[in-house]
Amino acid sequence: MNKKYYQLSSDLTICRIVNGMWQVAGGHGQIDHELAVADMLRYHDAGFTTWDLADIYGPAEDFIGDFRRRLSKVKGKEELDKIQLFTKWVPQPSRITRSMVNGSIET
């Protein structure tokens, strides 16, 4: 296996360096959306195919959505199979119920 990637399971291989989307959460200055998506494509072309998201990362999902659409348009839909997206849910501190978890998954 290529040392740039790590096999987590028989059906999941990820890049050893994960691209974090926390930078788009705010507080890090103005972000040029088009330039950011173009940079994401360059990262992908360099083999960085794994992305970390969270619901608290502001517009991170919008950036990833645009990146995926552009990647599919430029390289073909099969290229989408080469990326991995990890996310997490960060609820407000309180008692967490099953209903809250299910509601967050469904939205």
3D architecture notes:
It is built from 3 helices and 5 strands; from the N terminus they run E-E-E-H-E-H-E-H. About 35% of the residues lie in helices and about 15% in strands. It has one domain. The strands form 2 sheets. It has a 3-stranded parallel β-sheet, with no helix packed on it. Strands 1-2 form a two-stranded antiparallel ribbon. The protein has helices at about 35-45, 60-75, 100-105; strands spanning about 5-10, 10-15, 20, 50, 85. It is of the alpha/beta class.
What would the principal axes of the Cα set say about the shape? Answer: globular
Low-pLDDT ranges: none
Number of strands: 5
Count of folded domains: 1
- Calculate Rg over CA atoms: 16 Å
Question: What is the end-to-end distance?
Answer: 37 Å
Residues in helix, %: 25-40%
Strand ordering within the main sheet:
3-4-5
Q: Which percent band covers the strand fraction?
A: 15-25%
Order of helices and strands: EEEHEHEH
Tally of separate helices:
3
Feature tags:
107 residues; alpha/beta; three-stranded parallel sheet; two-stranded antiparallel ribbon; 3 helices; 36% helix
In short:
This protein has helices at 33-45, 60-75, 98-106, and strands spanning 5-9, 12-15, 19-20, 50-52, 84-86.
How are the secondary structure elements laid out?
Elements: E1 5-9, E2 12-15, E3 19-20, H1 33-45, E4 50-52, H2 60-75, E5 84-86, H3 98-106
Helix pairs in contact: 1-2
